[in-house]
Design goal:
single chain; 324 residues; alpha/beta; D-Maltodextrin-Binding Protein, domain 2; five-stranded mixed beta sheet; 12 helices; 19% strand; globular; Bug_dom1; signal; Tripartite tricarboxylate transporter substrate binding protein; BUG
């Protein structure tokens, strides 16, 4: 019959084997497929950005990297999945900093953006385009403002209290629009489909989407949201240039992991991110999507960006109150 000493020795041996196995897994990382969680539907700009990075990471490490689209609940479903996953580097989050940092009223999250996530790499940074369907018949912000005061218009966003919702709420308030109707979506693709189908009258989309729809003649870009004009739509003025306030938001897409990642794993991921973003082919692919590569973004810069966005959006949310 085993003595107390024998049982303790067996327990100690088991713990030692477990620690050794975990350490070996860190050293051999990655030894199995990596999942890149994207809180947007397939086919949208965020999904396109993710698939370029996933392919590059897979090629760099000769390991499978799977994109897992988890849209819904204003991005909190995808972020929550990564937060709940084991902090081993096999479940990562690719999202827009403003979406991760936004506090969504009425939705309880299991995570704190600035405490529970650590930045790995900046991928793209770009403004969004403010667009209307051609059927609406307006060709400028002034014409849209006049129409919005005459009759009720609808606008789409990527979810309740997301930045795309709040920005348009503030914009339409400045226009003195007549009872605008907000329609939330899980991402860009379904929103654009409804806009072209006549269900909504305006929205914010990626620059690439705006350019494609402009070419087809089905959509018009009236302005861009951001601190400066897009290099891909240089003739389109920013909302700030056209006299609207609080419209200086730039959208940075970045890769995040759990703040509890082992240092060895985090270091490997961050080094891989630098290598991929320094690759001219990566930059060319993002530019072909009309996305500006976020080259040379340091981890400290990304961390500060998340903190700043979180503080700024919390102030904006407090000022506008509960939105639907």
């Amino acid at each position: 019959m085993p003595t107390l000493f024998d049982r303790r020795r067996l327990l100690a041996s088991g713990l030692l084997l477990l620690v050794t196995a975990l350490h070996a897994d860190e050293i051999n990382y990655p030894s199995r497929p990596i999942t890149l969680v994207v809180p947007y539907p397939a086919g949208g700009n965020g999904d396109n950005i993710a698939r370029v990075f996933a392919k590059k990471l897979s090629d760099l490490w000769s390991a499978p990297v799977v994109v897992d689209n988890r849209p819904g609940a204003s991005g909190t479903i995808g972020a929550g999945q990564v937060h709940r996953a084991a902090p081993d580097g096999y479940t990562l989050l690719l999202t827009v900093t403003t979406q991760l940092s936004s506090r969504v009223p009425g939705i309880k999250t299991s995570y704190n953006a600035t405490q529970d996530f650590v930045p790995i790499a900046g991928l793209t940074i770009a403004p969004l385009a403010f667009v209307v369907p051609a059927r609406l018949g307006v060709k400028s912000m002034l014409e849209l403002e006049a129409l919005a005061r005459q009759r009720m218009l609808s606008y789409g966003s990527y979810g309740v209290s997301t930045s795309t919702h709040i920005v348009q709420h503030l914009l339409l308030a400045q226009m003195k629009a007549k009872a605008p109707v907000h329609v939330p979506y899980k991402g860009e693709s379904p929103m654009v489909a409804d806009m072209l189908g006549g269900q909504i009258d305006m929205g914010l989309v990626g620059i690439g989407q705006a350019r494609e729809m402009e070419k087809s003649g089905r959509m018009r870009t009236l302005a861009v949201l951001g601190t400066q004009r897009s290099e891909f739509l240089p003739k389109v003025a920013t909302l700030s240039e056209q006299g609207y306030q609080q419209m200086d938001w730039a959208y940075g897409t970045a890769l995040y992991g759990s703040a509890r990642l082992p240092p060895e794993v985090l270091g490997r991921l961050q080094e891989a991110g630098k290598t991929i973003m320094a690759d001219p082919d990566t930059q060319a692919q993002y530019r072909n999507q009309s996305n500006q590569p976020w080259v040379n973004a340091t981890v400290d810069e990304l961390r500060q960006r998340l903190v700043t966005d979180t503080n700024n959006w919390n102030k904006v949310l407090a000022s506008v109150g509960a939105l639907e």
